Amino acid sequence: MTTRVGVVADTHCPEFLDRLPDRLFDVLRGVDLVIHAGDVNGPETIAALEAVAPVEVVRGDHDRGHDAWPLSREVMVEGRHITVVHGNRSRWIEEPQTLLWTLSLGKYHPHTGLPRALRRRFDSDVIVFGHVHRPHVETIDGTLLFNPGAVHQWNPQTVAARLAQNPGRFEWSWLQVARHMREFSPPSVGLLDVTRSSIVPSVVVL
């Protein structure tokens, strides 16, 4: 028997997106379970996903006020152990990485050491994480590290939309640089086809 799991991260809805894209629901149609790896941003997002399948969610750094969502959780699927965590770390690590990414206009890829850091923390068949807004599929010491990418991505269009919402001065200043981004990932979502003998990951561009 195969269980299909939809893997979603960094929706930032309604923070940066007014609604989840229709294409997301097309991709998730027929899944048995949805995992959301954090930076959900609003309970209405979880409610929309629950119309597709049961949802297991963790809290990200943009999920302030949602303390009922755990920082990490363990999910069993077909006897396989899946750890779900957002992946944010100390601001001393995070902020210099974000600054380099911004100043490089997207050319610098931050948080490249995050998968190995998570593997040192958790011992599972799969570790699902978000936060970096980039798809990642890698096996480390027998554990699959899987990031589906992000539903919300910064690009010239999403930056312009956010600027139209009159953000605060600090964010406005950051967006003035980010609107010149030269490299950015497209929005994406993940799928895991899980059996007792295999786990097959895939990333689908939205």
What does this protein look like?
The structure is a single chain. With 206 residues, the protein is α/β, with parallel strands linked by helices. The chain has one domain (3-205): 4-Layer Sandwich (Purple Acid Phosphatase, chain A, domain 2). It is built from 6 helices and 10 strands; from the N terminus they run E-H-E-H-E-E-E-H-H-E-E-E-H-H-E-E. It has helices at 22-28, 43-50, 91-103, 114-121, 156-163, 169-178; strands at 3-8, 33-36, 55-57, 72-77, 80-85, 126-128, 135-140, 143-148, 188-194, 199-205. A 5-stranded mixed beta sheet has the order 3-2-1-9-10, with helices on one face. Strands 4-5-6-8-7 form a 5-stranded mixed beta sheet, with helices on one face. A hairpin with a 4-residue loop joins strand 9 (188-194) and strand 10 (199-205). The longest helix is centred in the middle third of the chain and has 13 residues, at 91-103. It starts with a strand and ends with a strand.
Number of strands: 10
- Helix count from the secondary structure assignment: 6
Largest sheet, spatial ordering of strands: 3-2-1-9-10
Distance between the termini: 27 Å
Rg (CA only) = 17 Å
- In one word, what is the shape? globular
- The CATH topology annotation reads as Purple Acid Phosphatase, chain A, domain 2
Q: Structural class given helices, strands, pairing? A: alpha/beta
Please write the string of helix (H) and strand (E) elements.
EHEHEEEHHEEEHHEE
**CATH top-level class:** Alpha Beta
Helix content: 25-40%
Assembly of the depicted chains: single chain
Strand content range: 25-35%
Overall pLDDT level: 92
Largest sheet: 5 strands, mixed
What is the second-level CATH architecture?
Answer: 4-Layer Sandwich
- Flag low-confidence runs: none
CATH superfamily label: Metallo-dependent phosphatases
Question: How many structurally independent domains?
Answer: 1
